[in-house]
Amino acid sequence: MRDATNALLSGARTKSASIEDVNDIDHHLQVAPGDDAYFANLYERSGYLTVWVAECDKNRWQYDLQAMIDAPGPDAAKRQYCENLLGDDEEGLVRFEVNRAGYSLLVEEFPLETFRRLKTLYEKLVELHLNRRQTAAQWLSRQGSAVLPARSPAVLLAPHTAEWFAALAAWNPQQAAHTRSILQQSGSDAVCSICGDAPVRDYRLVGPGVPDGAICTLRLCNDCWRIRANMHAESLALLT
Predict the structure, then answer these.
(1) What pLDDT, in 10s, does the model give residues 152-207?
(2) Per DSSP, what are the bridge partners of residue 237?
(3) Where exactly are the structural domains of the chain?
(4) Residue partners of 130: CB distance under 8 A and separation at least 6
(5) N or C: which end of the chain has fewer CB within 10 A?
(6) What is the pTM of this model?
């Protein structure tokens, strides 16, 4: 991954010396979309989009129950790996989920091939991480070990449904009242929970900062997503 990132940044800086990290490429393409083909090709050539293939090949046992059972090494080490993975407050998943949501938003606003390829990458990384977690849980269950529960029993209700409003009114009555007013003014429930704008997508708060029992789903427009993700440092993943 280090080699792929270095190759990516080296090529990126031939286009703009102001690019210091990978996130700067996103900003560059938003103001210089004509460079899309160059960067889409650069991501491919650098190997950045396919590092996960080598990772899976090297650690096949992490993604397949029978391979984990057959893998050499003591069960104690496998148990520690599985418990650490399942007890990480989903920190590993959060980064992939948030990036998947971010590139889904960018593809809508800037239909560039680079952003489409990055969206596909993070969709794959989410899938693989969930596969790892499932395999770890299956191995622990087979060993008779207790499978660690999710840290937060977050309530994942579809935004703006009757059930969502009822649960939100009990959790955060001020927010529930605000959103009801927004929907009444707009005459539609297919608008942002915060400002009433459209178009929107459904999101969920993820990560260790989500309070236990929180109603952590929202329907957000792109501007409110940016405000909550960037200004308030919230980790927002797509609901589906």
Answers:
(1) 445 678 999 999 999 899 888 999 999 999 999 999 999 999 999 999 999 988 87
(2) 204
(3) 2-142, 162-238
(4) 93
(5) C
(6) 0.78
